[in-house]
Amino acid sequence: MALILDGESTTVGTSAPAAGGDLIKDATTETFMTDVMEASRQVPVVVDFWAPWCGPCKTLGPMLEKLVRQMGGKVRMVKVNVDENQALAQQLRVQSIPTVYAFRDGQPIDAFQGALPESQIKQFLSHLAGGAANPIDAALEQAQQILDDGDAEGALALYQQILQADQSNAPAIAGYLRALIAAGRGADAEQILAQLPADILADKAVAAVKTKLELAAQGAGPVDDLRARVASTPDDLQARFDLANALFAADDAEAAVEHLLEVFRRDRDWNDDAARQRLFKVFEALGPTHPVTQSGRRRLSALVFS
User: Fold this and answer.
1) 57 annotated active-site
2) Which part of the chain is the Thioredoxin domain (predicted)?
């Protein structure tokens, strides 16, 4: 699916072509010596033993390919179909698939079986590459720091570079959307969300951005006017609820949570438990590790059990 980022089209939700052309290739018994043994004297090589009928192989293979590409040439990958290369599989004592071997300097140095989680595969590749960090992960951390420092445009540029290298990276997509919102381009973020495939929308980070936009759209007027209403009539829970929405839309999540907690404290059943439900939405939008989420959840629990 084509996704427009600042006037340039990139594809989201599909695999990118192999960088460098030879980072990932299929090997046979006849080519194994060249493609693996000799090649591993230059760059470490992972060998994925798989078969078309193997269910876990269909999960592991694409993930391994993606992560090898992300390593930017520090590691290469060779795929061996065991049905077509049974003698080679027997020689390397492949008893079940998927099985992955790591070669360096012409020798197998590590291996694993089964479809491991992405985090463990990253560790496996990093160790194989001499402790080199995944460049995409490093760039994501840098982009988040730039965004946290208030440079939305700088973050947008870096997130776009990441997406050009890894077009289906959900954290990068979520970061790009957050940067758009921070740059005052919420409408552009909404347009991009409308283009995303279901598997990307299901990612927690992307879903949190979608929730944030939905809540921001429910801001009920200028913050100053709503503050004045709440100050003059503190018991007007609708005004306080509207003020919380407006504050969240203005990126003041801490103050928004404060007013929602106050609505709940004054009347926890108000408007069919609206305050607590809205708090859950805010926590979802901020993410579980956000300080406002952690503090807000603790304070909400204290009110519930008081």
Assistant:
1) yes
2) 10-130
